[in-house]
Write a structure and sequence with these properties.
Blueprint lengths: L2 E8 L6 H17 L4 E3 L27 H13 L2 E11 L2 E9 L5 E6 L25 E3 L2 E5 L8 H9 L4 E6 L2 E3 L4 H22 L3 E5 L1 E4 L9 E4 L3 E3 L5 E4 L6 E8 L2 H8 L21
Parallel strand pairs: 1-2, 2-3, 7-8, 8-10
Antiparallel strand pairs: 1-15, 3-4, 4-5, 6-7, 9-12, 10-13, 11-12, 13-14
Helix pairs in contact: 3-4
């Protein structure tokens, strides 16, 4: 059996980028010491979640790829001999920025990257102001530990994205995430939302016969514009097997590291019993390419 030990780092972030990165490095090391071969970080992990407000000056947070973060984390990946999934604010060109996941190989080199395709524009999630939609497609990244299908946060609500990655040969789906509750939503409503968030991703796992790794931020981040009460990130990072079974689930209100073992060969067994790919009616799916079918 092909077993893969995956480290997951769920942490809070503050305005001091260097302190955030130092904490990330400590947590990555802890996962590696626990035997992780692959370590996954949360969305936009170097800084606070700056998309709570629209401010062009915040584009100064963006960096090139390759750049300072890929160099620094690349050295750490090489030192520890791990594959590492980053989530960065990419400066592609003047005025063109992306929300980009980067996969570093265990020698520290860049194995590949994925630019977030679905960009939200919701209260306190004003990502369309900052991010250009991705243009690299849904292509798994080849690594020494397998074919990694990385998607980012808002992508996790779209079954089409998960299916496209699966059809392209992904062996595991990974979602760096930054999602939480806004103060205008009652606590009970936020619980329902959080349940739906986990449920839809477990559905991607079932429909595609693939493990899913989702790593979310945790903790309160204030809105420095004082236009709102800020965001309370849900934490609750989790991992599933290829039938949506929960293999790990983090607390909703604590920083946490953990290593979970994934059986990559189980996909073969599951897909033989539930042959969804075999029975797909690809000749009848034209309506999915329309905005609305009616």
């Amino acid at each position: 059996m092909r077993k893969l030990s995956v480290g997951m780092v769920q942490q809070s972030c503050g305005p001091d980028i260097e302190k955030n990165i130092q904490k990330l490095e400590k947590n990555i090391r802890e996962c590696a010491f626990q035997g992780a071969q692959l370590v996954v970080l949360q969305e936009l992990h170097n800084s606070v979640y700056f998309c709570q407000v629209e401010d062009a000056k915040l584009c100064d947070l963006a960096e090139s790829i390759p750049g300072p973060s890929t160099e620094r984390f690349g050295k750490l990946a090489a030192e520890l001999g791990i594959v590492l999934v980053l989530s960065l604010f990419e400066r592609r060109a003047p005025g063109i920025y992306h929300n980009t996941a980067v996969v570093l190989e265990k020698d520290g080199s860049i194995a590949g990257k994925y630019r977030k395709m679905h960009i939200p524009d919701d209260p306190q999630y004003y990502e369309k102001f900052y991010f250009t939609p991705g243009d690299l497609g849904f292509r798994p990244i080849h690594t020494s530990v397998g074919e990694i299908g990385v998607l980012v946060c808002w992508d996790q609500w779209y079954p089409e994205a998960a299916r496209a990655m699966a059809l392209a040969g992904a062996e595991i789906l990974i979602y760096p995430t930054a999602i939480g509750g806004v103060g205008t939503d009652p606590i009970e409503e936020q619980k329902v939302q959080r349940g739906a968030w986990q449920l839809v991703q477990r559905g991607h796992s079932v429909a595609n016969g693939l493990p899913v790794i989702t790593v979310n931020r945790v903790g309160h981040e204030p809105d420095w514009s004082e236009a709102s009460s800020g965001l309370d990130f849900w934490g609750t990072s989790f991992a599933t097997g290829p039938q949506g079974e929960l293999l790990a689930e983090f607390p909703s209100d604590e920083e946490c590291n953990a290593v979970v073992e994934i059986d990559l060969d189980r996909t073969e067994y599951v897909r033989r019993g539930w042959p969804f790919f075999r029975d797909r009616r690809i000749d009848m799916y034209d309506p999915i390419l329309k905005r609305y079918g009616k």
